[in-house]
Design brief:
The protein is of the alpha+beta class. The chain is built from 3 helices and 2 strands, in the order ββααα. Strands 1-2 form a two-stranded antiparallel sheet.
């Protein structure tokens, strides 16, 4: 477990509805609540990953994504000249066959 060099303590009173306010800093965050037998409660901010995106965290996909993001950061987008691109693109078989027929 990571040890923080600076620990801040506050006192909060649980209201009659069983809630406490953590302040705007935690608004919208997802927290894990750990309850210990000795009465301690520890809240830890967490990030949730949808199951459909779990593959992005595993190799080799994770490294590929990182390489792609690094490349994208070094290569800003430029507008494509479609006419020039079409000149460079080889014709498909169907296009070549149609071109030969009288």
């Amino acid at each position: 477990m990571k040890s923080d060099s600076h620990v801040s303590s506050e006192f909060k009173t649980v209201g009659s509805s069983g809630q406490i306010s953590l302040g705007k800093r935690y608004a919208g965050k997802t927290l894990r609540l750990d309850r210990f037998g000795d009465g301690r409660i520890v809240l830890t901010a967490v990030a949730m990953v949808p199951e459909s995106q779990l593959w992005t965290l595993n190799e080799p996909d994770r490294s590929r994504i990182e390489r792609g993001l690094t490349w994208a950061a070094k290569n800003p987008p430029v507008e494509t000249d479609l006419d020039r691109l079409m000149e460079r693109t080889p014709k498909t078989r169907a296009q070549r066959k149609r071109a030969r027929r009288p």
